[in-house]
Amino acid sequence: MRKLLALVLLLATATPVKDIRPPDQTFLTYPEWFLVFSPAEYAKFTRDHNPSDFPFIGHTRQFWQGYHAVWTATRGKYPFNGGYHVMIMVIGGSTTVEYLMRSLYETVIGRLAESTRRHGFTQEEKLAANVAQEYVDFIRVDPWYEFDFVTPLKRLWTKTDWFGPDLIRKWERKYFLTTEYGVKAIYGWMIKKATKAAYETPILTTVVIDDRGNVCALPRYEAFMASATALAKQGVGFREIAGNRGNILVTVIVPMGTNADHVLLRQPILTEAGRERLLIVVPVVQLSQTLRRYEGSVEHVFDY
Question: What's the pTM?
Answer without folding.
Answer: 0.91
